[in-house]
Design a protein that fits this description.
The structure holds 2 protein chains of 2 kinds. By secondary structure, chain A is mostly helical. Chain A has 5 helices and 2 strands. Chain B contains 1 helix and 5 strands, in the order βββαββ. Classes of the chains: A mainly alpha, B alpha+beta.
Chain lengths: 187, 101
């Protein structure tokens, strides 16, 4: 694990505290919800600020990895990630929505990075005038596929989380999508 | 893959998997056996190098993904805690408003 890019210990402690309190509320403990409200209020700004910090640096590293050191591609990826993040966050987002938008963008970038790496395993490339094949092993490919699968699951989970938070914030009923098909008579 | 001594002479054998069993394949001795042994050794070394390279690449990928994983976990916990704090509880994977919350 890259030490420079870990969440600080006090943030991890706050996250653990929130998890514990949530469990106590779910278990029906009296007064736990009040305590959780206080903890959420106190922890949210600090956790979000530190996450944003780690997240920004992480995006830089991931873009660098996807671009393979080509500055133009790195810049384009970072611009796309930024546009994606602000589009997902929408107008006037809450701090939590911002964090979740950041999370979705990160997970998308992780998928891009793994996809680029996976494609590289099958690429034939010129090396000293000769064609060279990387020849990935079966276990290597299996490892990569597993990583991609997990990344995709996390990406979908992050999207679901934001949708849930928005739905509950708005107190709106579940979204129902109806499709109308108009069939025009030929005669 | 090994050279085995029989009656003061070295003979080259290699192990071949046949389903669940591993069979020993006799390849003889002399120049041809030495050439095959050399080729086997080259292939084995190449595989080992590739495996070591893949392990290093795997570790690098995990390092790259780790910060995004930490943020994911923090976002997940904060989102759930906020929902529960706002008066919801989980019921069969769905959140429902707690009565009187």
């Amino acid at each position: 694990m890259n030490g420079a890019l870990e969440l600080p210990g006090d943030v991890k402690d706050r996250i653990r505290e929130l998890q514990e309190l949530e469990k106590r509320v779910e278990a029906g403990e009296e007064g736990a919800r009040r305590e959780l409200r206080r903890a959420v209020r106190e922890s949210t700004p600090m956790v979000i600020a530190r996450c944003a910090d780690v997240s920004g640096k992480s995006r830089g590293m991931l873009s660098e990895a996807v671009s393979g050191g080509r500055p133009l591609i790195k810049e384009a990826l970072e611009a796309k990630a930024e546009a994606m993040r602000s589009e997902i966050a929408g107008e006037d987002p809450t701090p939590l929505e911002l964090l979740l938008a950041e999370d979705i963008t990160n997970q998308w970038l992780v998928q891009e990075m793994l996809g680029a790496f996976y494609a590289g395993q099958f690429q034939r490339r010129e090396h000293k005038g000769e064609r060279e094949h990387k020849g990935a092993t079966i276990s290597g490919i299996a490892f990569l596929l597993k990583m991609q699968e997990s990344a995709h699951r996390r990406y979908l989970a992050a999207i679901r989380e934001l949708a849930r938070v928005r739905k509950l914030q708005a107190g709106a009923p579940a979204v129902q999508v109806n499709t109308q098909v108009n069939i025009l008579g030929s005669g | 893959m090994a050279w085995e001594e029989r009656g003061g002479r070295l003979y080259y054998y290699r192990s071949v998997r046949d389903g669940e069993r591993v069979k020993k394949e006799y390849l003889g001795r002399g120049e041809l056996a030495e050439t095959i042994a050399h080729a086997d050794e080259t292939i084995r070394r190449h595989r080992e190098e590739r495996r070591a390279q893949e392990m290093a690449e795997g570790e690098l990928l995990e390092d790259l993904v780790a910060p995004a994983l930490e943020v994911r976990e923090a976002a997940r916990v904060l989102a759930r805690a906020s929902i529960v704090a706002a008066g919801y509880h989980r019921h069969r994977g769905e959140y429902r408003r707690e009565r009187g919350a």
